[in-house]
């Protein structure tokens, strides 16, 4: 049997690569190594700028060349690291040798022993992961989420006054507006975004067991805690001073749990929109040339929302596992986090893919006002809530002596549909004040939407 050419195993690197490709700049092996090189170079520059451990300052041109090399990390460096790691069997050591090689090329071999000095691998790794995850969230995942929120807000405004039958427990209930129901998701997602903004991206830089022991042995007079803090914060990260060999990963657990919460809200959105499509509240806009079914030519399937559901579930399976796994490390260090963190991109990737599908799906639907109106007109019994509430107020005000208004409406409406004529006849015979009676007679399911439209104004606040 002839083998296929090398193929990607994950659909994120195959069928769906175009939707998630941006994550590869940060959460791939190459993206991680680029960040490692950046950290190693910045540490070397820091040591020379502050004349630590016997270092003398580099010239501005030398600093610029080193930083430009780290920033331009590309295929040549990727290939060289792969070749070196075949010998070292250690990814961070391969990065160290890569930096040493660049120093030799620049005739700066005298600084070679400052490369990776006082660092354990995890000093480099934890900062590199924090940098890449922060960038991936800020530059890829977050903009995609914001695009979905913006589109939902646009549709919420578009449909703010379009009346719609609510369904609680799947049964007809007090009407709302389609815009208000979409606004619920805008509000929920916006709250999560605000909380995401509060998450710290922590980094440690304190040696083999978090004690700065080697640092103090080499230079007991330097304020290594202050140096560590300044270096970590200089990478636009938050400093974690008290750790074992590893940064404790609590911030990662917090971040992935928050993203998983966003995913669950999006999952709820996808199932709701799918259900509204199913009952005809939304029309799907056919995509030119697309096929809905291999055998049924008429079909336009809500596949964008179905795809989103599946990918949100896959994303959460990974993110939940990461949040659970990463917060535990045996004593001062074990390697469970190393294997787990290599899947951060997979977890975020499935979420990005889901967001992409939701955004495209939202762009391929239109509300069907006639279907919404027909459903409302077929369920006049939902006005029973309004009628019994008005009667209670009239009794309290002394304008009615009706006993147990709720029971009266329950007898009239529960488990059966009644039409406008029957309801009007019932209202006309009520012993209530004339103003109240006229309000009820003017009410229809389509106008019984309370403050639903007005609630959208709160999204702007």
Jot down its keywords.
PurB_bact, Fumarase C, Chain B, domain 1, Fumarase C, Chain A, domain 2, Adenylosuccinate lyase, 461 residues, lyase, mainly alpha, lyase activity
List the helices and strands and how they pair.
Elements: H1 17-20, H2 24-27, H3 29-49, H4 60-71, H5 75-88, H6 91-105, H7 121-158, E1 163-168, E2 171-177, H8 178-196, E3 202-203, H9 213-218, H10 224-234, E4 238-239, H11 250-278, E5 282-284, H12 303-325, H13 336-341, H14 344-362, E6 365-367, H15 369-377, H16 384-396, H17 405-413, H18 420-428, H19 434-442
Question: What can you see in these coordinates?
Answer:
The chain has 461 residues and is mainly alpha-helical. It has three domains: 21-119, Orthogonal Bundle (Fumarase C, Chain B, domain 1); 123-210 and 237-288 and 298-369, Up-down Bundle (Fumarase C, Chain A, domain 2), CATH 1.20.200; 380-444, Fumarase/aspartase (C-terminal domain) (Ribonucleotide Reductase Protein R1, domain 1). The chain is built from 19 helices and six strands. The chain has helices at residues 17-20, 24-27, 29-49, 60-71, 75-88, 91-105, 121-158, 178-196, 213-218, 224-234, 250-278, 303-325, 336-341, 344-362, 369-377, 384-396, 405-413, 420-428, 434-442; strands at residues 163-168, 171-177, 202-203, 238-239, 282-284, 365-367. Strand 1 and strand 2 form a beta hairpin. Helix 3 (29-49) packs across helix 6, helix 3 crosses helix 7 (121-158) and helix 7 (121-158) packs parallel to helix 14 (344-362). The mean pLDDT is 94.
């Amino acid at each position: 049997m002839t083998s296929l050419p090398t193929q990607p195993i994950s659909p994120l690197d195959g069928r769906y690569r175009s939707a998630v490709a941006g994550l590869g700049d940060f959460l791939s092996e190459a993206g991680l190594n680029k960040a490692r090189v950046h950290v190693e170079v910045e540490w070397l520059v820091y040591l020379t700028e502050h004349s630590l451990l016997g270092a003398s300052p580099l010239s501005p041109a030398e600093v610029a060349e080193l930083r430009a090399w780290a920033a331009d990390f590309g295929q040549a460096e990727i290939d060289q690291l792969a070749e070196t790691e075949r010998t070292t069997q250690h990814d961070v050591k391969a990065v160290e040798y890569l930096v040493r090689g660049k120093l030799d090329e620049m005739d700066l071999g005298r600084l070679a022993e400052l490369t990776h000095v006082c660092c354990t691998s995890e000093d480099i790794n934890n900062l590199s992961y924090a940098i890449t995850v922060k960038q991936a969230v800020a530059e890829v995942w977050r903009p995609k989420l914001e695009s979905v929120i913006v589109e939902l807000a646009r549709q919420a405004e578009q449909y703010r006054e379009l009346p719609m039958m609510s369904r609680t427990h799947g049964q007809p209930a007090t009407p709302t507006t389609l815009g208000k129901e979409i606004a619920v998701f805008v509000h929920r997602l916006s709250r999560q975004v605000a909380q995401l903004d509060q998450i710290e991206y922590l980094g440690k830089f304190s040696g083999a067991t978090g004690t700065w022991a080697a640092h103090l042995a080499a230079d007991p007079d330097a304020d290594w805690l202050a140096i560590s803090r300044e270096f970590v914060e200089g990478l636009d990260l938050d400093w974690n001073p008290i750790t074992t060999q590893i940064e404790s990963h609590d911030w990662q657990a917090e971040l992935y749990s928050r993203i998983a919460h966003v995913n669950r809200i999006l999952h709820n959105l996808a199932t709701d929109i799918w259900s509204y499509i199913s009952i005809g509240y939304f029309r799907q806009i056919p995509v030119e040339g697309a096929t809905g079914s291999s055998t049924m030519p008429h079909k336009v399937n809500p596949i964008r929302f179905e795809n989103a559901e599946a990918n949100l579930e896959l994303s959460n399976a990974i993110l939940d596992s990461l949040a659970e796994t990463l917060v535990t490390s045996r004593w001062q260090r074990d390697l469970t986090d190393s294997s787990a963190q290599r899947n951060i991109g997979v977890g975020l990737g499935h979420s990005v893919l889901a967001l992409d599908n939701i955004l495209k799906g939202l762009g391929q639907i239109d509300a069907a006002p006639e279907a919404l109106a027909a459903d409302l007109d077929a369920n006049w019994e939902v006005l029973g809530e309004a009628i019994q509430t008005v009667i209670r107020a009239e009794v309290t005000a002394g304008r009615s002596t009706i006993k147990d208004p709720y029971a009266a409406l329950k007898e009239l409406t529960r488990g059966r549909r009644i039409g406008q004529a029957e309801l009007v006849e019932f209202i006309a015979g009520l012993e209530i004040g004339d103003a109240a009676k006229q309000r009820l007679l003017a009410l229809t399911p389509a106008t019984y939407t309370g403050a639903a439209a007005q609630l959208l104004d709160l999204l702007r606040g």
